[in-house]
Amino acid sequence: MITTSGLTKVYRSRGREVTALDGVDLHVREGEVFGVIGQSGAGKSSLIRCVNLLERPTSGTVTVAGRDLTALTGRGPRAGKELRQARSRIGMVFQHFNLLSSRTVQDNVELPLEILGRSGKERSCRALELLDLVGLADKAGAYPAQLSGGQKQRVGIARALAGDPKVLLSDEATSALDPETTRSILQLLRDLNRQLGLTVLLITHEMDVVKSVCDSAALMEKGRIVESGTVSELLATPGSELAAALFPVSGDASGDDRTVVDVTFHGEAATQTVVSQLSRTYNIDISILGAAMDTVGGRQVGRMRIELPGPYEENVVPIGFLREQGLQIDVLGPEPALVQGGAK
Amino acid sequence: MTWTDWPAMQPLLSEACWDTLYMVGWSTLIAVVGGLPLGVLLVLTDRGGLLQSVVANKVIGQVVNVARSMPFIILMVALMSFTRTVTGTTIGREAAIVPLAIGAIPFFARLVETAVREVDGGLVEAVQAMGGNTWTVVRKVLVPEALPSLISSATTTVVALIGYSAMAGTVGAGGLGDIAIRYGYQRFETQLMWITVGILAVVISLIQFAGDYAARALHRRGGGSGAAPRLRLLRDRTLAAETATAGTVAAETATAGTVADETAADVSKVA
Hints:
The complex is a heterodimer.
Chain A: E1 2-13, E2 16-28, E3 33-38, H1 44-51, E4 59-64, E5 67-68, H2 81-88, E6 90-93, H3 105-115, H4 120-133, H5 149-161, E7 167-171, H6 179-196, E8 199-204, H7 207-213, E9 216-221, E10 224-230, H8 231-236, H9 241-246, E11 258-266, H10 271-282, E12 287-296, E13 299-309, H11 316-324, E14 328-332, H12 334-343
Parallel strand pairs in A: 3-8, 3-9, 6-7, 7-8
Antiparallel strand pairs in A: 1-2, 1-4, 4-5, 9-10, 11-13, 11-14, 12-13
Helix pairs in contact in A: 3-4, 3-5, 4-5, 5-6
Chain B: H1 6-44, H2 54-69, H3 72-78, H4 80-87, H5 93-117, H6 121-129, H7 134-168, H8 176-186, H9 190-222, H10 232-270
Helix pairs in contact in B: 1-2, 1-5, 1-7, 1-8, 2-5, 4-5, 5-7, 6-7, 7-8, 7-9, 8-9, 9-10
């Protein structure tokens, strides 16, 4: 639904050049919630602004819903008619809501429809319908200043949906909100994604946001996409930073002579039974030190840190069993030392 | 002419009062119509603006600066031939409107520029993301969002124009300034001068009060925190500044009161 290829953005100011985006290739499938995570300054904001060409990329292309937007830019700095039409089909939600303080909630939601040239009656019908959808039907006549942060963002979402977009861009939509409100806004985005088949591209610096709503995620560092894929693909990638951050496990061995193993489930194996099977088959006591699991689309994904009795040499067979189940196994601590010792 | 000649002074003063309001009214209207687009253009053509154009920005900025740096009394004289082509005369209240308006356009434009610049850039971005063009941004965002500040700016312009209009009195424009100079200065009728000063002070206070009231009513409706929490600090400062302005107004009103008192004292002495 959204594809960027070789997207590069260089800011020039007073002779200095800052590369905000450095050859970003991103692919967001139709109907999914895609999260781009990264620290401030990683280029997330530039990326999302390049998708609807609020920022003009220095090079590279952006395709949204099969349409090459970069081809619509024209030569001047101003957006031409075609680009503006394309933008009206892409909703955008902002960190600081960006509601017009001089307009009521309903008038704010009507604004995109005014730009599209809809009639007054149609506008107010649609605006009230959207406010109902985001649960703010009773606030239509209020001014943004009279609303809480979460309510303002709901208005922002209703406004973004007014043009009946297929794609919603969310620029740190929950970063200015408290955890409780964040959850409800994310839930709303998730619901809209399911009900309307809306493709959502969101950028955030909060891992929890990715974890709670995203089907796919990408990690951005210094203007590049470092990792990218669906949550289970990321988990299947050995040494994936994103997977480690999404499913953090911790816990130390309860004593010497123990083997600590990180087991990663990426939705392929029948996870519920694996641990008990292992215990039964080899007649060993397994303790779970830590786990971060989630059910995505009926399949369990996540990571678990388990402890087996005895040193690594005694556990080679059970670990082999786990590997046979198609699980990704990382042995902590003694294994590398042992390998090194064997090499000598 | 003394205080006992009130019946003689009254028509003189009321006519002068209307002349002043007529001149100021029309020139304000022209200044707003001319200065608003100019001020908006100053913001739009600036670096990073929607219509970024260094040349246009420099040219407009320079024109505004030159026009603003010129003392009004010289502007009036310099514009005489232009005034004659427009109104057919250089004397009278119609003729005064021309230099008044031309002097006020750049003044108001600068105030508009400041007001419009304070509109949160995120709002502009939001409208662009909806597919709005530059005109939409101006019409739906910049002007409505800056409206409270714009009203304050217009108030300041009116007050400045009342001052200018008094100067216009020296070239025969009529109005309160004319009375103060002709009767008060050239004929040594101090009381009449003080009455005009009192009237001017009252008129200015009323205008300032009305302007502040309108601006604050609009601002309160918006709540002053529509866009961003991070801007709240800045907005608070604006609010504080406004309160300060309100304080000044109060002070001005107080001054006006003092003037009135003095006038009253004069009256009693004369009586």
